[in-house]
Amino acid sequence: MRCVVFDLDGTLADTSLDLLAAANAALPRAVLGPQDALTAFHGGRAMLRLGFTRLGMDWSEADVDAGYPVLLEAYRAGIATHTRLYPGAMEAVEALKAGGFAVSVCTNKPEALAELLLAELGVRGAFGALVGADTFPVRKPDPVPYRAAVERAGGVVGRSMLVGDTETDAKTGVAAGVPVVLVTFGPEGAGVSRFRPAALLDRFEDLPGLAGRLLT
């Protein structure tokens, strides 16, 4: 079966405001804002590094390690406060399923948090599988999580594709030998074209047709 795998943060949903709020809770004072959405989509540790640097602190990776559990707990407590699915995301998912595609999620968010977020948004049941950052000892761009996300949803890796928003997703596609589509409605916009994806996606409405062409 053909399969479309989705990244979560910055692809299916704009999670940036809740991620930044959690990072601010783990910093001595709030210094991160909406302008830092791109950093938010690169993960909790990236946000903490930016925050410490912006505060002018003499920080080390030990400080990042110490702040990370605090960030995770704050994020868990407010995981869907401001997070919203991108327009048309679930309509595209349902159209893909109606067209005979399997659909799943492969994210570098910890699995339990990804499960919680999709449940809070009311869409977990739409996806045949979910693989997170800690499901395996490795994470994207290693191909192992991606392959599992395809196979657990009933798909075939050789007939699958990834929809994402970052260089990590582009590298995952290369590692797994599958086409990658990068969305242009994230903080980088069309700048993601420099990662040389198989295609760019400006709106979810176009995804079912694009998937049909890429996975003939």
UniProtKB/TrEMBL annotation:
Origin: domain of life: Bacteria
Listed name of the protein: phosphoglycolate phosphatase
Pathway where this protein functions: Organic acid metabolism; glycolate biosynthesis; glycolate from 2-phosphoglycolate: step 1/1
E.C. number: 3.1.3.18
Catalyses which reaction(s): 2-phosphoglycolate + H2O = glycolate + phosphate
Source organism per UniProt: Rhodobacter calidifons
Class of the enzyme per the UniProt entry, highest EC level: hydrolase
InterPro entries recorded: HAD-like_hydrolase_sf (IPR050155), HAD-like_sf (IPR036412), HAD-SF_hydro_IA (IPR006439), HAD_sf (IPR023214), PGP-like_dom2 (IPR023198)
Family assignment from sequence similarity: Belongs to the HAD-like hydrolase superfamily. CbbY/CbbZ/Gph/YieH family.
